[in-house]
Write a structure and sequence with these properties.
Number of strands: 14
Radius of gyration: 26 Å
Helix content: 25-40%
Mean pLDDT: 82
Shape: globular
Structural class: alpha+beta
Distance between the termini: 88 Å
Length: 321
């Protein structure tokens, strides 16, 4: 009888110890997963750390890079950040050309909105700095550059002015010539100025006027992610100053509502908002610059945008809506 009692006691003790060890292992796994999630929150969108993850979220639009290009970007973006002394470097997108394609990277300084520089590459390893776009360059490119990109930075576009019948050629007309590198700089500037998107609250403005990433941003809720008014243009505000009514300014928070919302864009309907992957990812697609795709994972700070296209603006959009 004593032997049987000792055997039963030993079996119960062994089972209790195994249950305790299993519960301890599960607790350690939970702590490790939470720590990994906390580290993932600190990663920037479309940088070398989250490049694979971000490209998979926008792959529903048909945008993809092969394994060689991904591996090259993951290495070269780190070197760009070190060599040019950027605060962070992101993969901006890809402009398709006839001969070659342009891979675009974006480097940012202390001010996320003003301190921006763009670089282009053909092989995702050797990068060249794009010149800053000014008003004079915008005017020249809008007049001379037409059609698709050739894929040659030294290619020249020429503006031939039309001559009317009977018009005397007394005054010499100066031809406007623009290289494709300057056209690329203007196109990237316009796309980033008109359709770059961030969720509301992802960035805040300091007392010095600098715009920085909001470290307390935990993402939009699923209900907020389904509304276009909760997404903002990541560019200098143009329409926000026109809101003079008290009712329009009542719901604005000066620390986060200093950018123009997408809901104020004209014409209406130039944005396509969808919830994909079983409503786990919010995806925005621009119909004005077709090829730009923005993603945001609700309840997380993960967001970003990328452009894959020909670099041509959809001027027929008002007639298509």
């Amino acid at each position: 009888m004593c032997v049987l009692f000792l055997r039963l006691f030993f079996v119960k003790t062994t089972r209790s110890l195994s249950l305790c060890s299993k519960s301890a292992q599960s607790l350690l796994r939970l702590i490790a997963s939470r720590g990994h999630g906390a580290r993932a929150k600190n990663k920037e969108p479309m940088d070398s750390n989250t490049l694979y993850y971000s490209l998979d979220l926008v792959s529903g639009s048909g945008h993809a890079l092969n394994g060689e290009q991904r591996a090259a970007l993951q290495t070269s973006l780190v070197l760009l950040k070190k060599n040019y002394k950027f605060n962070r470097v992101m993969f901006w997108g890809k402009i398709l050309g006839i001969k070659e394609d342009y891979f675009i990277a974006q480097g940012k300084g202390h001010d996320e909105l003003k301190d921006k520089q763009f670089l282009y590459s053909f092989n995702c390893m050797e990068w060249h700095l794009l010149p800053p776009a000014d008003d004079a360059m915008l005017g020249e490119v809008s007049r001379a550059a037409k059609g698709r990109f050739m894929g040659d930075p030294s290619h020249e576009y020429t503006d031939y002015p039309l001559k009317r019948e009977g018009e005397e050629a007394a005054e010499a007309v100066e031809l406007i010539k623009v290289t494709e590198e300057r056209r690329l700089a203007v196109t990237v500037h316009l796309i980033d100025e008109e359709v770059s998107v961030v969720p509301r609250g992802a960035f805040n403005r300091t007392h010095l006027g600098l715009m920085n990433a909001n470290r307390c941003f935990e993402g939009l809720s699923h209900a907020e992610a389904g509304k276009l008014e909760n997404f903002l243009h990541f560019a200098k505000p143009k329409k926000l100053k026109k809101k003079k009514l008290i009712q329009e300014q009542a719901d604005l928070d000066p620390s986060v509502d200093f950018l123009d919302p997408l809901s104020d864009d004209v014409p209406k309907g130039q944005w396509s908002l969808q919830l994909e992957n079983a409503s786990s990812v919010c995806v925005l697609r621009s119909l004005l610059w077709m090829g730009l795709t923005f993603y945001h994972v609700p309840m997380t700070p993960q967001h970003g945008y990328v452009y894959f296209g020909y670099g041509c603006k959809n001027l027929d959009l008002p007639f298509m809506l």
